[in-house]
Amino acid sequence: MGEYEAVIGLEVHAQLMTETKAFCTCPNRYGAPPNTLVCPVCLGMPGILPVLNRAMLEQAMKLALAVGATVHPRSKFDRKNYFYPDLPKGYQISQYDEPFSTGGSIELKVDGHRKSIRIRRIHLEEDAGKSMHQADGSTIVDMNRCGVPLVEIVSEPDMSTPAEARAYLNEIRRLVRWLDVCDGNMEEGSLRCDANVSVHRKGSEAFGIATEVKNMNSIRGVERALAYEIERQIGVVEGGGTITRQTLLWDETEEIARPMRRKESSDDYRYFPEPDLVEVVVPSEWAERISRDLVELPRARCMRFCQEYGLAEATAEVLAGERGVADYFEALAKESGDPRRAANWVQGDVLRILKERNCDIASFPVSVSDLAGLMNEVETARLSLSGAKKVLDRMIETGRSPESIIEQEGFAQTSDAREIEEVAREILAKFPSEVIKYKSGKKNLFGFFVGETMKATKGQANPKVASEILQRLLS
Amino acid sequence: MAVTREVVDHIAELAKLGLSDEERDRVTWELNNILAYIDEIMAVDTHGVEPLHHVLDMTNVFRDDVPGPCLPREEALKNAPDRTEEYFRVPRVIK
């Protein structure tokens, strides 16, 4: 970016995880056959009346309170009017001048520095249907998504690099998942992001003209689209041109942002109060109850992991990356009585297995008590650490208990000195010339003897005991 | 504020309505009449009166988050001017 600075603000839409839509009783579910989750209300038939879903409000309140926002005692809904085929009523029910929540912030850590990103507002609205443009030039529309409850989270323009935007989105995603209010799936569109970005010369008081970038469907996509657009704007300014206020659509495959062709007049939304919905009043006791019932938030949990279990901050942050993982770790720490080893297992093997199998912690097949049992086998030296890791992999593959795998597949480690000595003697007898070389000074052959002994016992010999025996036999 | 023909054209464009010359004239005349009536209301002194958001003296009308029946797809698509087996079909909107 050189002598330029960028100013970035993000608008995030998150689909709430309610059972039903915002204003009607149709199920709120992704992936159903097209146009099967619809009713007269969400199809905008004449004479319909919306009724607000209480769970929508409560989930949004959880999020607002978790970011330290103010939930206003009164708010109302407005109609945002625009004409598009995926919006059958001709207006979206949203909140305009009296959003239910303002303020709050998200704390980031980017490349070692901390930064607080202020949130301007969080408001409630409904999603539109999904239109798909066909090769023959027509457009087909699925209304299943129409009326699904959304929160729109509008940040202040406090970010200055694409990396900060990525960190902000990661944090929002972690938080909504942590609070169980949104599944955070950007590919399926349950979390979406639009970006406003401008550039100006460093030290200049005035900000540049911002453009809006849309259509990014991954966090990486947002980062790349912003890098592209910042670069483009700097190029325009450097070339003596001016930036025009416009909306660009990010093309993930071509990795370019193209101006969206649209008439200026279409941005005239003619907001007015929604006469079909009455005001929402949130007494302070209600907000206090939601606040009291909030789960321990990621940052607090991370800090507690450091203090209570003596973990390094980097480790605690990985473990607190997702609530399910944090819960699993904490249960394992308690069950095994060894928090640091539990942290190593979860951070290392559990997360590796989840990644390999592309599944989440909720469907991780090994129970906390089985893994604690495995840790105990290492503690008592019945298993070597690498043997235990192999047993874990076999448990995942076969779904069998650690006991039966250890017994039937011979992973048990032996510390029986007599047994190991027998094998060690055989090895030394098998490699007489190596023994001579060792005795004449090639001491680095020692590892070779240990390795051969381990191999001969199929890895079951306790390596510590084997070393001691070999030392003795070779001296 | 007087509603001009340009304002009417703009609103018609936003609503994707095609108006004939005759209709444009009539709508312009009607909208001006409506606004003239609003002007009369605006003349009332509302000093010290709280803004009214809703004519009903009610707040917090909620429903529980419990699913109800949906329309069968055939019913949902029945009134559509154009459709496929599963979808509404509309003219191309993005060029």
Protein model, in words:
The complex is a heterodimer of chains A (475) and B (95). Chain A has helices at residues 54-66, 162-178, 219-238, 284-293, 298-309, 313-319, 323-336, 339-356, 368-379, 385-398, 402-408, 417-430, 432-439, 446-456, 463-474; strands spanning 4-15, 52-53, 70-71, 74-75, 78-81, 91-94, 101-102, 105-110, 113-126, 130-133, 139-142, 149-155, 191-201, 211-216, 247-251, 256-259, 272-273, 280-281. Chain A is of the alpha+beta class. Chain B is mainly α. Chain B has a domain at 5-42: Histone, subunit A (Orthogonal Bundle), CATH 1.10.20. Classes of the chains: A alpha+beta (475), B mainly alpha (95). Chains A and B meet through strand 2, helix 1, strand 10, strand 11 and strand 18 of A and helix 1, strand 1, helix 3 and strand 2 of B.
What is the element layout, followed by pairings?
The complex is a heterodimer of chains A (475) and B (95).
Chain A: E1 4-15, E2 52-53, H1 54-66, E3 70-71, E4 74-75, E5 78-81, E6 91-94, E7 101-102, E8 105-110, E9 113-126, E10 130-133, E11 139-142, E12 149-155, H2 162-178, E13 191-201, E14 211-216, H3 219-238, E15 247-251, E16 256-259, E17 272-273, E18 280-281, H4 284-293, H5 298-309, H6 313-319, H7 323-336, H8 339-356, H9 368-379, H10 385-398, H11 402-408, H12 417-430, H13 432-439, H14 446-456, H15 463-474
Parallel strand pairs in A: 14-15
Antiparallel strand pairs in A: 1-12, 1-13, 3-7, 4-18, 5-6, 5-17, 7-9, 8-9, 9-12, 10-11, 13-14, 15-16
Chain B: H1 5-14, H2 21-42, E1 62-63, H3 73-77, E2 88-90
Helix pairs in contact in B: 1-2
